[in-house]
């Protein structure tokens, strides 16, 4: 029903610490924490938080890249890493940008 594709244009390899720093500078609010990219999104209430969570799940399915989500009443913590390279890849940053775009002003 929902399209799924190998969407990443990124080479599947672990980025170096310098590459991660350079990418973080282009992705406001994201930081490296315990081996993953992490960002906390805040919302007015549970309903808004869950709307965000469901939109992220839709992206994750379509892109076959699935962030860990920690869901709270007015907050969702998103964590991204790439299992097969045991690190952070360009795919993680691409996914981070797509999640941020959900909340960008039209
Ligand atoms: C086979 C499949 O593409 C992989 O297992 C995908 C699935 N979703 C994933 N999600 C995340 N966050 N990292 C991965 O490395 C990953 N790998």
UniProtKB/TrEMBL annotation:
EC number in record: 4.2.1.96
Similarity comment: Belongs to the pterin-4-alpha-carbinolamine dehydratase family.
InterPro entries associated with the record: PCD_sf, Pterin_deHydtase
Keyword Lyase: yes
Record's keyword annotation contains Lyase: yes
UniProt keyword terms in alphabetical order: Lyase
The protein's name: Putative pterin-4-alpha-carbinolamine dehydratase
Catalyzed reaction equations: (4aS,6R)-4a-hydroxy-L-erythro-5,6,7,8-tetrahydrobiopterin = (6R)-L-erythro-6,7-dihydrobiopterin + H2O
Molecular function terms, GO-annotated: 4-alpha-hydroxytetrahydrobiopterin dehydratase activity
PANTHER family cross-referenced by the UniProt entry: PTERIN-4-ALPHA-CARBINOLAMINE DEHYDRATASE (PTHR12599:SF0)
Example of a GO biological process term: tetrahydrobiopterin biosynthetic process
